[in-house]
Each structure stands twice: as structure tokens, then as C-alpha cells.
């Protein structure tokens, strides 16, 4: 059975120099050291930088322990601006938000990369009374397992679904997955195709959600965020008919029942916004 990300309270918590480290209970302590190593040393250890947003540094590599070999990703979160720094005086670090979101997804039966360890560097706050209660940290990192054998959604769609019947079954499975997520009142922060990885299994597909820093569970999900998620998913599909898109929606609505007028309004809004986004993208490229 593949490991998952359990509740944060089950992680081992300890201090390494001026870092607070959280380690998955099923992984060896040797891996915890990776989240406190600076990027230069990390690269010297054989890890390679991979493409990431301007506000993060991501490295990929393998580590051998006495038990087994692990393929891992290390992500350093960067502050976006001085305002972002000020906001994080009172809110959890990006690494901790991503960590909690991963645990939430797994708790609800949804898949995402396993969080092996989290590191929070707090060199001054840790020893200052009252200030040590603030969530702010100078640096935060996460170490996750690579999703081996999986492909990003757009790549899988173009290269691994040969027949029309298989594509239609895949659209229904994708609609079911997104519908189930929304039925649990969970909205993904950035559901673009590069953040959905597909692993083919004997009886279907396993969908793995990446980049979960802004993934949240709501008491009542804002409709605008539902539309946003569905538009992000639809942007990767270019060669299907409206009938095939309807297959996706039927599977989605089976998980998220709503009245007929609401169904029609949702479908109309998603298709209109998808077309608008595609037109804007084409204009930028022209």
C-alpha cells in the first residue's frame, strides 16, 4: 500500500539547529536533514533544479538509505513581496498550508504527493517569549515523494489515450474526481493541467493533485471558485465535441447534484469563460 500524508499531529516534531522539522512517521530520520540544507549544498548532493514559479525553488533527486531509494522533490517557498512578509507574521507559512492541505485531501480520499518532511526556519522567534507563538518563519520547505509513473494531464491526454472510447471514459472519470472533490467542499487553488497527474491503473485512473498550498475546504464553497476550477480543467481540452464535454458534466453532476436551472447556468458559465480564456491566450500568442 502506498503511503499517504496523515494528520500533521502524527508527524515527529523536533529541532535541527534553528529549524523546526516535521517528519512523516513512516520515513527515516536521515531524510529530515534534507529540508534544512541550503540550496547550494542540496545541488552538490546531486539534486537538480526544475522549473518552478518565480516565488519558489524546486529541486529533484534521489536519496539512498539502508531501507530503500527515494525519489524526492524539495520545494523552497519564497516571499512574493514585503507585504507578503507582513501577512505571514500572522498566518501559517506556505509550506505548512500545503502540508495541511495534503493531509486534508488524503483524509477525504483524494490523492496528492506524500509529504515526507516540512522545515520551518525560525532563528530568532524560537527563543523570544510571546513572539515564539507567531507562525512567521524566515524560510519554509517541503520534501515530497515523486509521483512515479504518472503524467501531467495534458501530456496524458495527448499521448496515452489512443481510442475515442478510452478518451470518453477518461473524461467521465475526470468529471467524477473533480465532482467528488467539490462534493467534499474542497476547492483546489490552481487546477491547471500541470497540477493534475494521471496514473493508469488496472481498473481506471488515479488522479494526483499537486501544488496544494491554496487548496481549502469551505463551510460553503463560493460558486466563483467552482467555476474557476472547472474552467482550469476545461482549458486543456481542445479536440472534443460538446457531447463529450457533456459526459464530463454528467459525471461531475452525479457527484454534485443540483437543480436543472443551476446545471444549465454552471455549464454555460464554464464554457463561456473557457472560450474567453482561450481567445485571450490566442491573442497573446499572435
Task: Output the keywords.
286 residues, alpha+beta, Transferase(Phosphotransferase), domain 1, 2 domains, seven-stranded antiparallel β-sheet, three-stranded antiparallel β-sheet, 8 helices, globular
Description:
- This protein is α+β, with helices and mostly antiparallel strands.
- The protein folds into 2 domains: 138 residues; 135 residues, Orthogonal Bundle (Transferase(Phosphotransferase), domain 1), CATH 1.10.510.10.
- The strands form 3 sheets. It has a 7-stranded antiparallel sheet. The chain has a 3-stranded antiparallel sheet with strand order 8-10-11. Strands 9-12 form a two-stranded antiparallel sheet.
- A hairpin with a 2-residue loop joins strand 10 and strand 11.
- It is globular, with a radius of gyration of 20 Å.
- The protein starts with 11 loop residues before the first strand and ends with a helix.
- The mean pLDDT is 88.
Provide a quick synopsis of the model.
This protein is an alpha+beta fold. It is built from eight helices and twelve strands.
